[in-house]
Amino acid sequence: MAIQQKYRREEVSEVSCCLKYIIFSFNVLFWMFGLSVMAVGIWAWTEKNAFNNLSKLTHLALDPAFALILIGGITFIIGFTGCIGALRENTCLLGSYAVLLAVILILELTAGVLTFVFKDSIKSQATEGLQTFIVHYREDPDQQNLIDWIQEDWLQCCGIKGPEDWDFNNYFNCSSQKVGSREACGVPFSCCKRKLNEIVENKQCGYDVRKVGFTDDVGKRVDLIINEKGCLQSGEEWLERNMLFIATVCLISAFCKILGICFAQNLRADIFAQKGKWH
Q1: Is it the case that residue 102 has pLDDT exceeding 90?
Q2: What is the DSSP letter of 152?
Q3: Distance in angstroms (rounded) separating the CA atoms of residues 29 and 153
Q4: Which secondary-structure segment (H or E) carries 108?
Q5: pTM of the model
Q6: Rounded (5°) CA angle 141-72-18
Q7: For residues 55 and 53, what is the distance between their CA atoms, to the nearest angstrom?
Q8: DSSP state of 193
Q9: What is d(CA 276, CA 268) in angstroms, rounded to the nearest whole number?
Q10: What is the pLDDT of residue 11?
Q11: CA end-to-end span of the chain, whole Å?
């Protein structure tokens, strides 16, 4: 009887071990990734002393550092529950892992449907977000770096609907030339078109470009110096060009979550069965 019980225990453990280490291997990577992202976000907040000035923060959801902390924290928790739950064969943690994956999957599907149904409202929210970035461009280095990346590297655009949107910022507003702002009636350097084989980037290329009749030192027109297309239009065109790629990524992400839920539930079932065999 003892030999038969030992045989059954080893047989069930073999099935559990396969699922256990698959879940453990994948989730230890997510755990470390989430911890790294969260650490970068906390470091960014510490650098700008945000923890001591929480009352001064505006539009917290648009703060890139806060977004890193939030995404990293969620990833860390999911990776932790999956990793430790599988390693310790803890049915409670495995159940939590499956529930978290299911909740995120439902939220992603809901967000996708709502984005399609309320696309005009989403467009309006994106406009308000970009306007906030422009207004606080010189006040938050993270938001400044983000909008520079959007305008220069990602979409090659300028402003929301065009360069004139930089009037929302006190430094670039044309009336600011009365108080001696050198950037008045200009745009950030990230609006400028990069020159071929340019080694050192000209940080002053956007000065005065919105003044009437402006031409640079060699007589170039404004449209040859800066990108005149707004980021909202460029973003819509980018989505249209990459719709197939985005849909593929979303499907792969959903499949991985469903697979994770199934693996976690199967492992829980094996653990319960194994405990039943022992007793």
Answers
A1: yes
A2: I
A3: 29
A4: helix 91-117
A5: 0.80
A6: 155
A7: 5
A8: P
A9: 12
A10: 45
A11: 13
